[in-house]
Amino acid sequence: MQRRILPLFSALLLVLGTAGLASAAAGAGSAAAIGMGLSVLGIGLGLGLIGNAAMSGIARQPEQAGTIQTAMLIVGGLVEGAGILSLILCLVTIFVGN
Known about the structure:
88% of the residues lie in helices and 0% in strands. The mean pLDDT is 80. The protein has a domain at 39-98: Up-down Bundle (F1FO ATP Synthase). The chain is mostly helical. It has helices at 2-18, 24-60, 65-96.
């Protein structure tokens, strides 16, 4: 998965770098937009991996389903919290940085 994302991200940076940003504020907005996109991507990948591991664990040990589900929800909440914090910081960069 990382081998597919790296060339895509590199191409995106190349396109944005050659577009000729008008000012530092426009650059901050573009950087924040990229940051928000990466935050959402990270949240999605993290939650997908958590769900995959939880379902595998429940399939192997159905009697531990409650414990596994509780751990999955706690870790999922931590992933969401970190992602929401990064999105808030990106929004602050856009609106307060100008």
